[in-house]
Amino acid sequence: MVKETPFKKEYQYFKTCCVTLNLSKAAEFHGMGQSAMSKIILQLEHGQKEKLFERTSRGLKLTAAGLHLKDSIEHLEREWIKAQSQTKNMALWQQRLTIGYHPVIARSVLPVLAPALYQQNIEFELTSVFGTSTEVTQKVNRLDIDMGFVINPIRNPNLIPKKIRTEQVGIWKKKKNHVLLMYNPDMYLAPKIITKLSHQYKLIPVQNYEVIAASIATDTCYGILPSPIAEAYNFERIGQELINFDLCLIVHESKFQASDRKDLIHFTLETLKGL
C-alpha cells in the first residue's frame, strides 16, 4: 500500500498515464514534455521495484503491479475525500466560488451565469481565474478552483466533464477580400490548421483574439477566431468551419460528494443549457 498522500504529484501523473495509456497525451495534460513524464514513471517504477507499465507499439499497458498501485492510490483518495468532507467548514465553503476559464470562454459564460447565480440569492464570493484550458484543467484537478470551463477536456479519473455546447473556429472577414490572415499560435490545434493554410495566405501570428478581431474590423485582413468572438462583431465566415470543439464544464469528483456544490453544478448546467 502507498504510504504518501494520494495527491502527491507523481501519483497524479501516474493516474493520468493509466487513463490515457499514452505518455505523450499524459505529458500534454500536465504541461510537460514526454521525456519528463517518462522519467517520472521510471522513477516511480524504481521506487516500487516493479514495472508499472508494459511499453508496446500501441502505447502503455498496465502490469499487475501497476494495477495494484492504481487501486491503492484510488482507495487512499476516497478515504481522504471522506475525511475532508467530515472536517470541512461548510460555512466558509459556501461563501466562495472560484471558476476558471479562458477569457474568450468567459465573455460568453460569465454574463449569463453570474446574474443567474445572484438572482437565486446564493450567498458567495464569485472569483474568476483566467488561463488556457490546460491550465484551468490542472487547477481543477489540484482542487485549486471549484469548477472550470474548457474545450475538449482530456480524460482524467478525478474529473467529471459536462458538455455545454459545440463551438467552431473559422476564418472570418468584414467585407473585403484579403491575403493577410491573422491567427493565434496558442489556439487549439493551431499547427495543424496553419500548415493547411500556409499556401493560401500570408500568415501573421497574434497571441490575442481581441486584437485579431479589432484588426478584422478595420477590414485590412482576415482572421481565425472562435465563433463567439466573431459573431459578437457580426463578421462573415469564409467557407466551412476549420474545427469543431466541445465547450465543457469540468469539476473534481469530490465536489459531487458535497451537496451544496452538487446543487450548484446542476444549476450552472441548467442556466447555460441554451447558451
Molecular structure report:
The protein is an alpha/beta fold and about 280 residues long. It has three domains: about 80 residues, Winged helix-like DNA-binding domain superfamily/Winged helix DNA-binding domain (Arc Repressor Mutant, subunit A, Orthogonal Bundle), CATH 1.10.10; about 100 residues, 3-Layer(aba) Sandwich (D-Maltodextrin-Binding Protein, domain 2); about 80 residues, Periplasmic binding protein-like II (D-Maltodextrin-Binding Protein, domain 2, 3-Layer(aba) Sandwich), CATH 3.40.190.10. About 45% of the residues lie in helices and about 25% in strands. The protein is built from eleven helices and ten strands. The strands form two sheets. It has an eight-stranded mixed sheet with strand order 4-3-5-10-6-9-7-8, with helices on both faces. The chain has a two-stranded antiparallel sheet with strand order 1-2. A hairpin with a 2-residue loop joins strand 1 and strand 2. Helix 1 packs across helix 2, helix 1 crosses helix 3 and helix 2 crosses helix 3. The termini are far apart. The N terminus is likely disordered.
Largest sheet data: 8 strands, mixed
Instruction: Give the class-level CATH name of the largest domain.
Output: Alpha Beta
| Helix content range | 40-55%
Question: Architecture of the largest domain, according to CATH?
Answer: 3-Layer(aba) Sandwich
**Average pLDDT across residues?**
85
Report the β-strand fraction as a percent range: 25-35%
Query: Which outline best applies?
Result: flat
Write the CATH fold name of the largest domain.
D-Maltodextrin-Binding Protein, domain 2
Output the radius of gyration. 22 Å
Could you give me the name of the CATH homologous superfamily of the largest domain?
Answer: Periplasmic binding protein-like II
H/E series, N to C? Answer: HHHEEHHEHEHEEEHEHEHEH
Number of helices: 11
Structural class: alpha/beta
Biggest sheet strand order reads: 4-3-5-10-6-9-7-8
